[in-house]
Amino acid sequence: MAVVSPLMLVPDSDGLDHAAGLLNAGTLVAFPTETVYGLGADARNGAAVAAIYAAKGRPSFNPLIVHLPSVQAARPYVHWTDAADRLAQAFWPGPLTLVMRLRDGHGLSGLVTAGLPTVALRVPAQPSAQALLRAFGGPVAAPSANPSGRISPTTAAHVHAGLGGKVAAILDDGPCAVGLESTIIGCDGAPTLLRAGGLPIETVQAALGAPLATATTPVAVTAPGQLASHYAPTAPLRMNATQIEPGEVMLGFGPTDGALNLSPTGDLHAAAANLFEMLHRLDATGQPIAVAPIPVHGLGRAINDRLARAAAPRS
Ligand code: TXA
Ligand code: MG
User: Fold this and answer.
1) Which residues pair with 240 in a beta bridge?
2) 238 C-alpha vs ligand 1 centroid, how far in Å?
3) Which is nearest to 194 in space by CA: 87, 295, 103?
4) Exposed e or buried b per residue across 178-214, where buried means at least 16 C-beta atoms within 10 angstroms of its C-beta
5) 10 Cα: distance to centroid of ligand 1 (angstroms)
6) d(CA 120, ligand 2 centre) in Å
7) For residue 39, which ligand has an atom nearest its CA?
8) To test the ligand 1 pocket, which listed residue (64, 65, 163, 178) has its Cβ within 8 A of the most ligand atoms?
9) pLDDT tens digits for the chain (315 residues)?
10) Separation of alpha carbons 52 and 64, rounded Å
């Protein structure tokens, strides 16, 4: 079968209508959010959701995040706790995902939740994502739009390079402003950090007025973001490098400079926004990548988490 290249769409009213129509027809549409590009499908359509797993080459036990345009639209799907309500009011739309217990009659495909009694919900802030979700008018299941285990996409070009032959259309709205996947908080019980991400956990804890629990036992599912090797370039990656070794290419931060620098001024927001783009670029050199030390506070926690997984031994 011929490999069909995806339709490249821009988020004007024609492009958004077209993208919404493709979602309605049960096909895959990659779309921008403020965190990373998502690979979207109608979350109620089992065949469409199955196509996400096939396109990514993703182990099918990993559940997906369901995207909605507002807190209001998210209400009916789940049982809300006080903490979930507080977090949604404080941070939606934004780079936060809440895992909550499903309500009966939710209508989502069982493939979205991988059969779990809970579901991950997110209301993205990116105006083009908001517009697409409103034009479509239903829940959109979307993992990051990259082949499973590889570097996440923060531009339409990354999506095209990774999944170009496997997606009907790509909605191009430029680079993602946050550049790291959403922070995931489990809210089926005491609020629990499931994945560090684009919303610093200090900010989440300030809103809750209490520290977050961390998952002590492995979550029932092994989230892809929790697998040892993930977010990985082709070549090996080494963290906390203060000096370059022969053959390596260096990714700098602050005064520790390199071929590229995540943020010469040591700004963690800039570093987050640059991380995946710079990893994609350095990966293209084919050389092992050495990464300068990144502080472990604020967004630095999620940056170090992604780097640790990229550096982990490959299976
Ligand atoms: O920023 C983001 O979150 C991006 C954009 C596209 O929204 N999406 C994203 O999706 O990163 P993905 O599939 O790459 O990561 C979703 C994470 C996985 O680690 C998955 O296991 C976890 O959410 N997850 C989903 N449902 C869950 C559940 N019911 N319980 C625990 N973890 C869940
Ligand atoms: Mg991902």
Assistant:
1) none
2) 26
3) 87
4) bbbbbbbbbbbeebbbbbbbbbbbebbeebbeeebee
5) 25
6) 13
7) 1
8) 65
9) 445 689 999 999 999 999 999 999 999 999 999 999 999 999 999 999 999 999 999 877 689 999 999 999 999 999 999 999 999 999 999 999 999 999 999 999 999 998 899 999 999 999 999 999 999 999 999 999 999 999 999 999 999 999 999 999 999 999 999 999 999 999 999 999 999 999 999 999 999 999 999 876 544 444 555 556 778 888 899 999 999 999 999 999 999 999 999 999 999 999 999 999 999 999 999 999 999 999 999 999 999 999 999 998 876
10) 10
* Three-state secondary-structure class, residue 53: helix
Q: Could you identify the atom of ligand 1 that is nearest to the CA of residue 67? A: 7
Other beta carbons within 10 angstroms of residue 276's beta carbon come to 27
**Binding-site residues, ligand 1, Cβ < 6 A:** 33, 35-36, 38, 62-65, 97, 99, 113, 116, 118-120, 122, 142-144, 181-182, 184, 194-195, 219, 221, 223-225
The whole model's pTM is what?
Answer: 0.92
Inter-residue contact 88 to 70 (CB < 8 Å): no
